[in-house]
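Justification of resources, computational component.

The compute hours requested in this renewal are based largely on the per-chain cost of generating structure records like the one below. Each record pairs the submitted sequence with a full structure-token output. That output is archived, and it is also reused by downstream analysis tasks.
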Amino acid sequence: MKKTIALTGWILLSLIIGAQASTPLGESQPRNFVLFFEILDYTKEMGDAVSFFLTRVLDPGDQLIIYTPARVYGFSKATLAQPRRDLVRNVQDKLRGDTAFCRTNYRIIMDDMKIQARDVTENIASQDDLRRSLSQYRQSLANLQSLRKVNETLLSQIVEVFKPQPGKNHVVMIYQAEFRPIPDKETINRLRAMPIISFEANELFSQTDQPPPFDVGAFIGLFKEVPIIMHFFYIKPKDVSLLQDIKEQSADMYSVFSQMATATGGIRETTANPEAAFKALLQSLNAPAQ
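The structure output for this chain reads:
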């Protein structure tokens, strides 16, 4: 995940327990929602999705925690009881600001990779220069991967915190598809034809297999034990197939979170419009129990 926060378990625990303690005895059991926004850009469509969730999906009595790319926000019963337009504006502002704050390092790496991909093309006639360009690109790719690590400790803490909670537990992962620049197709074909370079070029620019970012089977077991229902929204632009010289970088995340959603009875949606995914969630929540 592109997460820069280091959240300790007791902070998360205090947020949820505080919300639970404020629910009087005898009230109907709430639904507990945790929303993860793993996004690179805050868009109008993302803001509309936030508005839809808070005004159409979240019911009175539900509990809510939101993870932005930078911070975690717990919402008291009093906060959730305020006029929804105020709550919507508050969450939208937080998500917009935190996303902008956290994307700086990511953008620097993307800019470096654009330059390095161009250098590979320009230096293809010189083996020494080409190797240097490939080495620089590999280092940038490693830097990119360091921003994408899943916080397994955090996931484990969420499982532990949810165990004593009444009601139904829902984790919603909103994950924006990632893409990285690569050399143009002609350059890659030329690299493949160079025996000394072909293996490295294929590894950097063509290989599609990525190791899973965490032990998905273990977490499926933990989520089902509580139980926690995982929902996965993969936000992918409509016109991305028309773009050249890019490679999708988030197939590993798509795989593991899709598996978790399917195994725990949640929904998974691939869409360019996050509001449409929340509409599907609302339909799922309102569906008669099987």
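Residues 9-20+29-286 form a domain with the Rossmann fold fold (CATH 3.40.50). The two ends are 33 Å apart (CA to CA).
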